[in-house]
Amino acid sequence: MNATGRPGARPGQRDLTSGPIGRSLLLFALPTLGSSILQSINGSINAVWIGQFLGERALAATTNANLVLFLLVSAVFGFGMAATIMIGQAAGRGDIEGVRRVFGTTLGLFAVLSTLVAVVGWLAAPAILTTLGTPAEAYPLALAYLRVIFVSMPTGFLSVLVSMALRGTGDAITPLKFLALGAVLDAGLNPLLIVGVGPFPELGITGSALATVIANTLSFVAMLVFVYRRDLVVRLRGAEWRYLRPDPALLKPLVTKGIPMGLQMLVATGSALAMIGLVNRQGTTITAAYGAASQLWTYIQMPAMAVGGAVSAMVAQNIGAGRWDRVERVNRSGVILNLILTGGLVAAVAAADRHVLWLFLGSDGDAVGAATRINLIGSASFILFGVSIVLSATMRANGAVVAPLVILAVALFPVRLGLAYALTPAWGADAIWWSFPAGSLASMVMTIGYYRHGNWKKGRPLAPPEAEEQAMACEEPTAKKMPVG
């Protein structure tokens, strides 16, 4: 038996359908958590470089451009998640060609979409920034930055897809390695290209965007080389390159399941923007305090997101393998792991919040006090919301994507925002902070209700094995089942 836990398994693949569930889930979730932390730290470091070298106008420009980038990533994220689930189901039933067919179809789709985004984005960048109301003094910088970012879209989208596909096969370590490589290169190249050091030209804000493009491209190429040298499951060779032509039978579940999952991110983003509008009415001090607390919340919610991603991949493999006896145990372990990791982080932040918040707010005692109260009331909501994330991840792994979307929309808009708007006249700013645990509690209750009584278990595999076998028709000598234990 090799390191994957499956006799004769493909290199880099972790078998998530056997062995101790809790340990496997933790070992799979930790690299994903590490990836999220690295991305956040990398973004913070780049913001420091831009702020220190180029000033507030440049920082405002990147803020506007990054909002556009986040919305674009959200739009395609659902397709990547759908592909991850389909790949996980195929890997769980030991179907190598099923994995490669799903990956090829999604890769072909992403290649077309990302190219269109790059071309349209370059042409429409001025109109996009005008629509966002980008300040006039920051507009030229934002335009230069955004256009370079649009050029990087094909490589960026494909890199995200390869990483998600590898996680679907049970490999969370490879994406972490090359994300770390990209983060180090990005943080190192940013100051060199912004101010011009040695042989590097002085490019200002364009240099910051170019540093990100170079770092992401180099790390993506390095990851592809690694995939082929290690012969990982998602590699395509020879006649398998025909899988890049999207298969209509696979495109249907990618689109019908991917769109609702992408909409979940857009719903969350819309709710956050509406909440910021409500917070802004409370004055500059409260807005600054909320911004500082939000910085902490970015890290507090990471464990639940990582555990949810691990649960989704693990459940997908077990559903593909027909191991429904393990699905409930995976879900239970995910909930417990979320309570431990998120709960522990909430407690740690609560114990040291004034010291940490001081880093963002300095000696402004009123702002620090307000931020401490915001964090005390709001941070516990992420423990409850983490339960919803894990349960939703379990249901999505079997193709149930509409109910989690509806539940999220109800929890964030009628409940959270509705309470905040309704109670603010009587409670003041506290109404906003208490709306966070209220919304999370509503989401958890509704999700538990659907998990226990809904029909999510009746879904069929997103990429039925019989369809794949007919499509292959033994055309390829490598069209064999993945070895299983």
List keywords for this structure.
485 residues, mainly alpha, 16 helices, 78% helix, globular, disordered C terminus
The tally of helices reads: 16
Radius of gyration: 23 Å
Helix percentage range? over 70%
Mean pLDDT: 87
Total strand segments: 0
Low-confidence regions: 1-9, 466-485
In N-to-C order, the SSE pattern is HHHHHHHHHHHHHHHH
Largest sheet: none
Notes on the protein architecture:
Helices cover 78% and strands 0% of the residues. With 485 residues, the chain is mainly alpha-helical. It contains 16 helices and no strands. The chain has helices spanning 21-54, 56-92, 96-131, 139-151, 153-168, 173-195, 205-229, 248-280, 284-300, 302-320, 324-361, 365-378, 381-396, 402-427, 430-453, 465-472.
Short overview:
By secondary structure, the chain is mainly α. The chain contains 16 helices and no strands. It is globular, with a radius of gyration of 23 Å.
Write the layout of secondary structure elements.
Layout: H1 21-54, H2 56-92, H3 96-131, H4 139-151, H5 153-168, H6 173-195, H7 205-229, H8 248-280, H9 284-300, H10 302-320, H11 324-361, H12 365-378, H13 381-396, H14 402-427, H15 430-453, H16 465-472
